[in-house]
């Protein structure tokens, strides 16, 4: 099994959650994605987390929209770090999801990222950073990614205000 398990409540969450997969790919981290619904398949939550633990998954990224119970419920069934990504909803644009994920009770930790694709990408980056603590090849790729970001900013830092 992969180092990172990306879970989502519905296939309709994939357009957002694939940003996590792309980030993990770029940093050389293996991943697997699945659909497991906190509301429609609650019986799969404990077995999914047991399987993840048995197969050496290191981090779980869970995307959820609306009521967004998936990240918290997964965290209740595992000792693995769980990062929650609020998926934008039609009605409240993901604010409902963000508040649901971030308001975990004391003792059930879920790292909560930004709403949407930026949050998913950062969840992938954060998962890679966790893995980088014990895998030098991933650490080197994370460091290179940061250097590229820095170089891009420096290259674009000199504005020609007259041309704006």
Automatic annotation (TrEMBL):
Top EC category: isomerase
Keyword Isomerase included in the entry's annotation: yes
Where does the PurE domain lie? 2-153
Q: Does the keyword Isomerase apply?
A: yes
**Family of this protein:** Belongs to the AIR carboxylase family. Class I subfamily.
Functional description taken from the UniProt entry = Catalyzes the conversion of N5-carboxyaminoimidazole ribonucleotide (N5-CAIR) to 4-carboxy-5-aminoimidazole ribonucleotide (CAIR).
Q: What is this protein called?
A: N5-carboxyaminoimidazole ribonucleotide mutase
Species of origin? Aliidiomarina sanyensis
The record's gene field reads purE
């Amino acid at each position: 099994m992969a180092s990172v398990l990306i879970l989502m409540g519905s296939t309709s969450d994939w357009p957002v959650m694939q940003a996590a997969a792309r980030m993990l790919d770029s940093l050389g981290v293996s991943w697997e994605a699945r659909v497991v619904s906190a509301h429609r398949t609650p019986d799969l939550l404990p077995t999914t987390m047991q399987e993840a633990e048995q197969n050496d998954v290191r981090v779980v990224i869970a995307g959820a929209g609306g009521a967004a119970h998936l990240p918290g419920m997964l965290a209740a069934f595992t000792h693995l770090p769980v990062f929650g990504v609020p998926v934008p909803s039609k009605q409240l644009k993901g604010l409902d999801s963000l508040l649901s994920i971030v308001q975990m009770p004391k003792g059930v930790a879920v790292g909560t990222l930004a709403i949407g694709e930026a949050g998913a990408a950062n969840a992938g980056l954060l998962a890679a950073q966790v893995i980088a603590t014990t895998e030098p090849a991933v650490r080197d790729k994370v460091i290179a990614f940061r250097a590229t970001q820095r170089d891009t900013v420096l290259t674009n830092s000199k504005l020609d205000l007259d041309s704006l």
